[in-house]
Structures are given as C-alpha cells and as structure tokens.
Amino acid sequence: MSRYRTALDLRATGSVNIPQAPSWHRDAACLRVGHDLFFGPASDLPRELRETTEEKVAREARARAMCRGCPVRRNCHVYIHSFPIGDQVGIWADTDQDERRVERRKNQRKTAAARRRRAEGTAP
Predict the structure, then answer these.
(1) How many Cα atoms within 13 Å fall on the side-chain side of residue 99?
(2) How many C-alpha atoms does 72 have within 13 Å on its Cβ side?
(3) Residue 14 DSSP SS3
(4) What digits encode the pLDDT tens for the residues 33-92?
(5) Any bridge partners for residue 92, and if so which?
(6) Long-range contact list for 28-33, CB < 8 A, 24+ apart?
(7) How far apart are the C-alpha atoms of 90 and 41, rounded to whole Å?
(8) How far apart are CA 81 and CA 87, in angstroms?
C-alpha cells in the first residue's frame, strides 16, 4: 500500500482546504477566459515554446483591456493584495506583479510616515 493518500481520500476526510472563489468572481469579466491570457505560458517550457517579449506585451495588453472594463475590478484589486507579494503573479485588476510591488511599497511608506507623525505629535 502506498504511503501517499489520493486527493479523493484527502477530500473525504476533510483534510484538504480547497479555496472557493469569492462571490464577486462570478461577475468578473475574466470568468470564462483562459488563464493563459492573464498568466502566460509556463516559464519552464523549452526556449522555442516560450513567448517572445512582443507576444507577452500583446497578451498583457489584451488582459489589461479586459480588466479595465470589468465591473468587479476594485474587488479584484483588494483580493490580490491579500496574498503575500511572491504569490501575486499574473495580471490582476489591470496591474502586474511589479506594479503591485511598487504600490505596496508606497503604501508601506505612507503608513510609516503617518506613524512617525503620530509619534512626534504632529499628526492631524
């Protein structure tokens, strides 16, 4: 008998936490679109199967255009920021991983500056 348990066994015992899509996701413009538009091909593919820079720019432009017209874009923005920065890959709410990292740093600086002002007694 294998020492590994199948996914079916784990689900039956309730030991697998399968995340559920948030309720707002059913209204997302991307709901029925393939993930490859937002995440691109796997990075471990052979070089000849990887997307070129031009292909990546075009793919991400299509994904961003879909995000800009999405009715739940704000929910998506909040949702992706609830994950650790290393887990925030792909295009979400018209932003990529680097843009979200910059935004997070700006927010951290604002928070730190507000704390300093409060500590110095100069907060509004």
Answers:
(1) 10
(2) 15
(3) coil
(4) 888 899 988 878 888 888 999 999 999 999 999 999 999 999 999 999 888 877 788 999
(5) 95
(6) 28/70, 28/71, 28/72, 28/76, 29/66, 29/67, 29/69, 29/70, 29/71, 30/63, 30/66, 30/67, 30/70, 33/66
(7) 11
(8) 10
Torsion of CA 4, 8, 12, 18, to 10 degrees: 100
Greatest mean pLDDT range, 2-11, 12-21, 43-52, 105-114? 105-114
Can you tell me the distance from the alpha carbon of 91 to that of 10, in angstroms, rounded to the nearest whole number? Answer: 32
Q: Which pair of tokens denotes residue 50? A: 């990887």
In angstroms, what CA-CA distances link 32 with 22, 27, 36, 43, 96?
A: 15, 10, 12, 23, 20
Q: Judge residue 25's burial from the number of C-beta atoms within 10 Å of its C-beta, 0-12 exposed, 13-18 middle, 19 or more buried.
A: middle
The residue type at 68: R
User: Do 3 and 47 form a contact (C-beta atoms < 8 A)?
Assistant: no
